[in-house]
Amino acid sequence: MKKVNVTICTGTTCYLMGAANLLTLDEALDPCTREQVEFSGSHCLGLCTSEEHGKAPFVKVDGHVIADATLMKVQDKIREILDRGE
Amino acid sequence: MFYDNKANRLRKEVLVRVARAFFTDQPDDTLNRIPLAMRPKRGESSRCCIYKDRAVLKYRCMAALGFSVENETDEMKPINEYYEEALQRKTPVKPVLTVIDEACSACVTTRYSATDACKGCLARSCESVCPKNAIEFYKGKAQINPDKCVNCGLCMKACPYHAIIRIPIPCEEACPVGAITKDEETGKEVIDHAKCIYCGKCLRECPFAAISDMSQMVDVLKQIELGYVVAMVAPSIIGQLPGTLKQLVSALQQVGFSDVVEVAEGADETTRHESAEWAEKMREGERFMTTSCCPAYIETVEKHLPEMRPFVSDTPTPMAYTASKVRKSNPEAVAVFIGPCIAKRVEADRNPEVDYVLTFEELGAMLVGAGIDVIECDETELHPGGHAEGRGFAASGGVTAAVKSLAPGDADLQPVLVDGIDRKSIRLMRSWVAKSCPGNFAEVMSCEGGCIAGPGTLGNPRLALKQLNMLVEESQPLAARQTQGEVQ
User: Fold this and answer.
1) With contacts defined as CB-CB under 8 Å, which chain B residues touch A55?
2) Pair B397, B469: CB distance under 8 Å
């Protein structure tokens, strides 16, 4: 099965606004879900330059942009994608 | 504890917007528009309406520009005028912390409340245990009469349904020394600066972000434009910003610092002196010695534990050693300490060799304002850089490990650790003086986990600790280089 791709932006803005904490996502996911997720490291995604994308921190889950991201929001999106896939 | 919540993000967003304004062509207009930009028309509000939110945001901007909100004299004064004033001032403003009274929700004073879970039972144990007859029944359910209640909590313990809850006032609960209390007339919180130890715990705990530190960011940005400014980065910087330590050095240079030094170098120096001082004191028959590097602890001793004074190490702090080295190499240098700490501002105020103190939050905001992406920066070597011991100061237990590594081989160092200052640990320390201390070397850290968990940090302390341990691991140890003869 194709894995869900999660990209946490670690540009300075995102890191400052909370991405530093989002990096614990790896541990926050339950082992079952974790197996179906792949993380890709990211430099600045460039989303913070314009307000239309919303607020930092940004996380991309399979191409969907999550603004003002929290561990909860990201996990919900991952589950939503996984549930749909099954 | 670690904080990443909406209140915390809002405070950081204000700092970022102020920093961005500094780098624009029209800072005045950008600054005045911050409240509108953050709470636009037809947008969401977090309080009653966007207008109240905007009013609070204006006060947040004041604090972000280094002003005490309590000192507002004219409500009409726009943000840009505060900015102009901030650019003119020569020294940072005291008293470090400010309460934004418009943001304070004036949490209820009644600490206990009967909830819907009350079954109106037959036993009514709450009623029988209450010494003040404060439990009244309305439609068969318990209610606490606030005029009679004395907050003893007996009813809560007595209720078999856990229907009575205690509602804390978060800032007062967090304060280890009772320095923040309600103004009886307004119901809003007020800081008693004669008691405050500037640990920053109230600032983190307030769910309305009504307590703010008074930023020195704009002062530093202005100094950078004017002259030779040296960034002294605390060992706890590891894990606080993206990229490596060497990339951060480049980022600091890009933002305009003329030189970057690691406070870990000063911590190495503190280690050398403190271990010698400890050995000396033990020879003289002292019972124990405590560390002196945590400024919130020093404030605690000065204001609440004066009997501890003779037991506190006289060794200067890592910041003090670093600043004196900076001044020695360039007497004109403006020395800026960058760390996780709010209390360091109080220490800096007493030390003429330290000019400004920034938190990692403020540094992050400055980098964002200047458009610098740390991960894209090249690596710049630090010369000479800190050793394993000095870098280890950043986490609880690190100072002990460092001092122990340089203590004379035959010395029997028995460490005790106060990992976080709270009411209980203050009582404990009091008993060390009055009765006995279970060790002979006490490391006291105001923040649980040490500096990597300080109020001005950005990173998750668990991840930061991992990164710190890796860095310490690959750093040169001081102990191996030092022969016994060099210890003074």
Assistant:
1) 9, 13
2) no
At B60, the amino acid letter reads R
Q: Is the bond preceding residue B461 a cis peptide, omega within 30 degrees? A: no
Q: Do A15 and B2 touch (CB under 8 A)?
A: no
Strand partners, B164: B114
* Tokens 């709270």, residue located: B422
Q: Which two tokens stand for residue B262?
A: 């690691």
- Are the CB atoms for B141 and B120 separated by under 8 Å? yes
E-only strand ranges, B134-202: 135-138, 141-144, 164-166, 180-182, 189-191
From B179, B196, B213, B467, select the one nearest B340 (Cα to Cα): B213
User: Hey, what amino acid is at A6?
Assistant: V
User: Within 10 A of B325 (CB to CB), how many other CB atoms are there?
Assistant: 17
Interatomic CA distance for residues B108 and B35, integer angstroms: 28
The pLDDT tens digits of the residues spanning B370-416 come to 999 999 999 999 878 899 999 999 999 999 999 999 988 778 999 99
Mutate to test the interface with B, among A10, A12, A47 (most CBs of B within 10 A): A12
ipTM of the complex model: 0.89
Å from A17 to nearest chain B CA?
A: 6
pTM value is 0.92
**How is residue B212 written in tokens?**
């703010």
